What we know:
The complex is a heterodimer. By secondary structure, chain A is of the alpha/beta class. Chain A has helices at residues 2-21, 38-55, 76-88, 101-105, 108-114, 142-146, 148-155, 170-185, 204-212, 226-237, 258-261, 281-294, 302-321, 327-334, 385-389, and strands spanning 24-31, 58-59, 62-70, 94-97, 118-120, 135-137, 161-167, 189-196, 217-221, 246-249, 269-272, 338-341, 344-348, 355-367, 370-382. In chain A, strand 12 (338-341) and strand 13 (344-348) form a beta hairpin. Chain A is globular, with a radius of gyration of 23 Å. By secondary structure, chain B is mostly helical. Chain B has one domain. Chain B has helices spanning 2-31, 38-56, 60-83, 91-113, 139-161, 163-173, 175-180, 185-206, 217-220, 222-232, 237-257, 264-276; strands at residues 129-131, 136-138. In chain B, helix 1 packs parallel to helix 5, helix 1 crosses helix 10 and helix 3 packs antiparallel against helix 8. Chain B is globular, with a radius of gyration of 19 Å. The mean pLDDT of chain B is 88. Chain A binds chain B through residues 34-36, 38-39, 42, 168, 194-202, 204-206, 208-209, 225-226, 229-230, 233, 237-239, 242, 256-257, 259-264, and chain B through 5-6, 9, 12-13, 106-107, 110, 114-122, 127, 129, 136, 138, 140-141, 209-212, 214-217, 219-221, 224, 248, 251-252, 255-256, 259, 262-263, 265-266.
Amino acid sequence: MKKLVGVLAGAAFLASAASAQAEVIKIGLIASFSGAFAVWGQQFRQSVEAYQKVNGKSVDGHEIQFIFRDNGGADPAKSRQLAEELILREKVKFITGFELTPNALAVAELITEAKIPTVIFNAATSMITRSSPYFVRTSMTVQQYVAPLPTWAVKEGGIKTAYTVVSDYAPGHDAEEIFIKNFEAAGGKILGKDRIPLNVTDFAPYIERAGASGAQAVYVFIPAGAPSVSLVREFAKRGLKDKGVKLLAGGEVQEIFLPAIGDDVIGTISSAHYTETNTNPENILLRKTLVEMFGKDATPDMGTVGAWDGTKLIYEAIKQFGPKITGDQFVNFAKGRKWDSPRGPVMIDPVERDIIQQVYMRRVEKRDGKLVNIDFFTSGMVKDPWKEARPAGK
Amino acid sequence: MLLFTILLDGIAYGMVLFLISVGLTVTMGLMRVVNLAHGSFAMLGGYLSSVMIRHYGVPFIWSTLGAAIVCGLIGGLAELTIYRPLYRKGDLAQVLLTFGMIFVSIAAMTLLFGPTPVAESMPKWLEGQIDLGFRTYPSYRLFLIGVGTLLAIVLYFIIERSLFGARLRAAVDDPGMARALGINVNLLFTLTFIGGCALAGFGGAIGAGILPIEPFYALKYLVLFLVVVVIGGLGSFRGSLAAALSVGILDTAGKYLVPQLGSFLLWFIVFGLLLWRPNGLLPPKSAT
């Protein structure tokens, strides 16, 4: 009898040891799942779920559990509160997500104090990663993906004069700054620049002004969604396109928004760090998985690819350090890391913890009855120009 | 030439605002219901029209009329079930409930159609430009001006020249006396509500080329619709036309001539107009 008890106790001990080994690693994801920016939450979640479908919901037997939290839009206080709750109550090892800059900045102090590594899936203002040593960004910065566009326009595109129309908020100012700087550096001339308030709904006057300037190209930067749809439609409907004026854009003409703009958008040239139609094996896998899981209309965008790569980075770090991974281990693991993303080759800047990547010039075309972006020019690896112009610690 | 361009752009924009807001001004003026969810009907109209065009191949014009009818019916149903109990509950209850309805409509549309703007579904004949002699101009905007003018004339006859309109105006000016004279104010309310929602649905569908249809539509443009109602004068049909066109033209002129003013521009216009006419441009007699 005594022997039997001993055996049972031993078995119980082994069982508990085994269960202690297989841990649940929780990852918080904060983004808009409702409200005006709900598209980001949808894209992040689909991307994470697609990644988990391909790579499994566990790493070496440890379950990876994403906890989604809705901040409802640009709401720094709510984002901070959600991050607090995720860290204290849910005991997450990582925080991810963040569609908008103010939401990301709001958690900087908190994650620094708690040493919780935080992977930014989108928010694109340059200085975010300098606000905490635990931020790592897998998306892009505004100036990074805009920078090659003006240079290409003058040198390869034969465009000598341009007019800029940007939204009157920080990312718009960043875009305007780098576009004008590089356009003029390449020998082009800016004929005028307008800043559009965020509450504007009718864009006719701005397009009319740009057209009247006689510029060969109009550069636009405006939040993707209803405003960008209106603006690009207006450009085409006003006949500027027929007069041979080129429209230069960025995130406005991501594939996901093209059906809303309509055939008028064909011919628009844009620069971006991710082209949805590229034929990288990772991208084909990503698109195939999205369609399998979420239906034939599921389309990846910048948010999807940022979330896919962020999730991959976390998976690989856990593979190396196990479930007890610390914040510092993760950040050091990420620094200087290179991998093949669905967008192409990428690398994390070992100093700034920001992503370094190629930028692609694309043109909107109709293929098999579907509006898509087609690559026609690839830049070299681009570091965030904003940070290069403003070195840290100065 | 520049002046013409500004006028055309301003009128086209103003017409969209007019089509959507006129229903709101009448329901607010007549029933004293603060119906913040009015934009939800415009949004619904836009979605319905787009679904009819893309999934059932309905021609554009018929789809906008279909959207108007369905929105009117749903509006009528909502009047009987949701709004009627609210008439005596005061402004706060109305604001809270109708604002809540906006959130319900946003969530419902996100669930049904996803968070991105709906696919563009304008017919080919509205895509191009028309030569006006001194310049070419988008045919879609000319079409909006035409439809808006036509509807304004039709509404003028219904509201200012028909018996129905006379009763409606009487009820707006003095509901108590109208009731005492034997006017069935309840029926008038329901019919007006149906009309207002149908117009909103129609405006949402036909104006989708300027105000893209997306789940946040109802909230995003709410302030704009309210501005038209307030500037026009509560309950005034002619006021809402005048207000929509003034806002459209002044806003367009401002953006064109002094873009540096940015987002202050619209508020300067509102401020100036209200300082000049605190009760609105053409308020009904009851408000003065």
